[in-house]
Design goal:
Blueprint (H helix, E strand, L loop, with lengths): L17 H11 L6 H6 L7 E4 L3 E5 L7 E7 L7 H7 L1 H18 L5 E3 L15 E5 L10
Antiparallel strand pairs: 1-2, 2-3, 3-5, 4-5
Helix pairs in contact: 3-4
Length: 144
């Protein structure tokens, strides 16, 4: 899946080139919408299973388990779960609570919650999101 978001690991720390640093900061003030932001705004269709004022949840287009849902904040302010935990722990708690509700509704209530953080960990969309995996997962496997 194409990454439409902007990460925060290169925020204007180039002290040897202040113009380059300022340019980076200015470009980050108006990031391109992530693919998830485009789903939230209904520019891109998705199989939406839940929505609140702050969150949206939909089926993953490439499921790795019998139940594979994504829980996504409607804000694009956080690229990963570490940033979200530091910046808005209450929103993170709401994500976990919605994941639990979805696991009860779409599976037995048991679930695996995965946050990929960084490209080497498999994160391809840099708009924080949780993978809710359920339905016959074996211990010792990451997915189904």
């Amino acid at each position: 899946m194409e990454c439409w978001g902007v990460g925060s690991d290169d925020v204007g720390t180039d002290s040897a080139h202040p113009q380059r640093a300022r340019s980076r900061l200015e470009s980050m003030s108006t990031p391109e919408p992530s693919i998830f932001s485009r789903i939230i705004s209904r520019e891109i269709p998705a199989d939406i299973v839940a929505e609140t004022n702050e969150l949206i949840a939909f089926r993953d287009v490439s499921p790795k388990a019998p139940v594979h849902l994504l829980v996504v904040p409607k804000t694009q302010a956080y690229s990963n779960v570490v940033e979200l935990a530091a910046g808005d722990p209450g929103l993170l708690a709401k994500m976990v609570a919605l994941a639990n509700e979805l696991a009860i509704e779409h599976a037995s209530g048991d679930f695996r919650l995965v946050f990929n953080t960084g490209s080497e960990a498999g994160q391809s969309v840099f708009h924080v999101h949780a993978h809710v995996l359920a339905g016959g997962l074996d211990e010792g496997t990451l997915a189904g």
